[in-house]
Structure formats: C-alpha cells, structure tokens
Amino acid sequence: MLPRAVATSSESALSGNLSALSGRAGVPLLLPIKAEAYGHGLGVIAPLAARHADVWGLAVATPQEAAQVAAMRLGKPVVLLTPPAPEEVGPLADLGVRIPVASPAEAEALPDHARAHLKVDTGMNRLGARPEEAVRVGQRLAERGLLEGAYTHFASADEPDLSFSEEQFRRFQGVLAALPPLLAHASNGGGILSFGKLPQMSLARPGLASYGFAPPHLAGVLPLRPVMTMQARVNQIHTVYAGESVSYNGLWTAQKETQVAVLGMGYADGYPRNATLKASVLIGGERRPTLGRICMDQMMVDISGLEVQVGDWATLWDAGQITVSDVAGWGDTIEYEVLTGLGPRVERRAGA
C-alpha cells in the first residue's frame, strides 16, 4: 500500500550535526535515539548513527527500546537512561545493555556480568541518587567491577543564565572525584552549545541538537541542519465555491471559487490541530495556506492556479521555507512535541 505521509531523514544532515557537536564537546557522543529517534524513526536513525565515527553508543529511554536496538547488532553500546523493572535487569544485562543504577538495592540486584552507569541527581530532581548517596552506590559498583559510567542531566543548559547548570556540574565533579576513572557524561545539546568542552567528561548526549535544532540564542553556535523532511500525499482535489465552508465548524469560508487539495496527514499522524487557520505547506512550487480545521486524518490546502494532481506530494516541513519550528509555533507547542508526536502511519525513510 502507498504511504499517505513520509518523513525522510537526511544522512548528510545528521552526519554533519554529529560531527559538529562532537567537535565542540571534544568527546564522542552517546546519541539519544529514544522516542523513535525523536520521531525520525529508530530503525532509520540507529543504523545511520552507528556508522558514524563520532558516535560511541546509543541511548534509549525504555527497556523495550533497549532490546530493540540491541537486537539490531549495530556494534555500538546501548545505554538505558531510565530505570528498568527488577525482572528486566537480567535480560537486559544478557543483551549487553548498560543499566542505570541509583540506589544500593539496584546495585546489589545487578548480575555479575552487568555493566552499570551511575545516575546522579545534581538538581533536576527527576531520576538518580543525590551526590552523597551516589558516591556510596558508585563505590559499591566499582568494588564489584560493574561500574562503567556515571551521568547527570542539565535542567536548564539551554537558557542564557547558566548559573544553575554550573552548580549542577560542580556537584557532579564532586561525585566523580570520589570514584575511580569511568565514562562520565553530562552535556545535552544545550550543554554542548553553551559550554563546549567540559573537564573530566568522556561522552556527550546531544538530543534535539543532533536532529538540527538549537535554542534561539544558541542558533549560531554551530551550523546545525534539520534532518527531517515531512511530506504528505495529495489524496483528492475538488472545487469549493464562493460561500461554501471547509472542514469542521465552518471556520473558513471561500470568498471565491477555490481549488482544494486534501492531504493525507492530520492530528492523528502528529500534525498539530492547534495549527488550524495558521499553517501553510509547500505544494506545486509555492507556499500555500491550509483551509479550515485540521482533521484527524487530513488537512485541506488552497491550490488555486497551481498544476497539482492526485498523488503529488506537499512538503509540511523541511530545512528550508517551512521548518519544524514554524509548525510548532503555529501549534502553540515545541519542536520536541511535533517531532516525537509523529504517529505510526507516517512512513520513515532514510535519504541523502
């Protein structure tokens, strides 16, 4: 069956972003590919990333993701960032997945062949052990020969005021000083762009920045390129006459005879419903507005005067005239939510 909507990820854009981020951080990358690689498709991005010389390993958020990536046998370490259930620890260790640890009980529950990354809570107050406890847990892991790495997460390194991030890093350094040498990682994309190379760090974990996006005040630090091009197929073309409305609730009424294309993507596929009456797309070589309410499965576009046929493709966002940031703005949300909200009906592909 033909796809209704296709998200194509550019290997060259991804590769360039990874090289630039690793160069600025001064260390290899532990690349987050959680949440379907930020919507780009885990099965698409994981092999591309694994071939990149600057990628040390791949980071995931759930045991299911960890098992999926481990089964690909890509030759790169897989690091789980959030705690598994006790019954999942043994199977994950058998797969070679690096396991997060943040308590004495978790440390004691690890099998002897496991490799652990100590999760340190330096102020995010989400996951991990506070510094004093982290030292004790880390020392116990080291005694058992299981401690491979330690990590923390910056809560606000993407903001102009870096004072809290600097305090978080000082706390993390205090933990590292009490432990034997290990793979330490702290910087997310905001951390890399804000700080560059940080002392004692072995790896960096850029998330959304890897896929081409930076906070506005950091946009010029590196030449990052959006990786994804999102397109939807024209499923039908029809005429709407003056005085007729389009879509639910009659929010848009034609002032004159209008040719309308129906695109095969809606809010069930991840396009923001809140973009209604604000969004536009690229179609037939021009930027054209959407018409009426964004629907669950479709959106309508004005194609009057254009040479467009059923089966043609409209570009909803790319690295050019319309970006994910534009769509996020129309939808009153953020790039993360637009990208990770792409549904399973969107086909993911790799491109040049």
From TrEMBL:
Presence of keyword Isomerase: yes
EC number: 5.1.1.1
Binding site for substrate: R126, M296
One Pfam family recorded for the sequence: Ala_racemase_N
Database matches in InterPro entries: Ala_racemase (IPR000821), Ala_racemase/Decarboxylase_C (IPR009006), Ala_racemase_C (IPR011079), Ala_racemase_N (IPR001608), Ala_racemase_pyridoxalP-BS (IPR020622), PLP-binding_barrel (IPR029066)
Job description of the protein: Catalyzes the interconversion of L-alanine and D-alanine. May also act on other amino acids.
The protein's name in its UniProt record: Alanine racemase
Organism for this UniProt entry: Deinococcus xinjiangensis
